[in-house]
Amino acid sequence: MRHKQRKRHHWLWKTLLGLFLLAGGGYWLWWQIGSRPIHARTYRNTHVVTVFVPGYASNSLTFGPMVSRFQKDRATNQVTTINVSATGKRTVTGAKRYDGKNPLINVVFADAKSPIKETQQLTALLHWLRTEHRVTKINLVGHSMGSNLSFRYLTTKHTDAQPQVIKYVLLASEFYRDPATQLAQFPKSVKTLIIGGQIFGAKGDWAVSLAGVKRYEQALKTAGISTSLYIYRGTPIGAYHSSLHQNPYVDAKILQFLFA
């Protein structure tokens, strides 16, 4: 009896190991195929600083891996992480200058559940970049609530010196109220890319609806803003709300939009 139980347990562990290896191999193949266009491309030097704005309850892992991948693929040669404390103090790690090839700044908010405070801190940070580091042009890349923070920044009239926003990437975000009033203040020169996810059989990425993402696109187009839309459809590994910024197909779309 014990011998049969041991054989059954041994068979079960072998099966689980086989499934794990199969899943790992499938993930590796998916990543390699998705990364192929990135590795094959060269990127122009825009000198525009790209600022990554994470979402609700985020941390350095939201955009940190993406920024590292972009550096590895030679889309940039300057990467900086700026941690903003709850009181607004900035701690800068990585590059201290922003004059290289497509400089990237990964912003990390300590108080990542306070959108009004984060918008104020983002505004102060961009003013600091403009006045202290002579950053005159930026791109904004936001995930989820980070896209909404960036949108609020873009549709607010600023009284202090701010960089000019050239391009704006909205990743896994949607409007939660009528945006007509805000969109009247949106700079018409800004080019936008909207990215959403749809898990097979679901209505979106399990956090943001596909219909909401498309409403976002339509609202921007109606306001006369240059907009393109990309929907990644697949398994939760790539299409889930928090998986979209760890997705080589999404990487490729962002890189092409910003630097191709």
Automatic annotation (TrEMBL):
GO molecular function: hydrolase activity
Superkingdom field: Bacteria
Keywords, comma-separated and alphabetical: Hydrolase, Membrane, Transmembrane, Transmembrane helix
Regions crossing the membrane: 12-31
UniProt-listed InterPro entries: AB_hydrolase_fold, DUF915_hydro-like
Identification of the protein by name: Alpha/beta fold hydrolase
Organism lineage: Bacteria, Bacillati, Bacillota, Bacilli, Lactobacillales
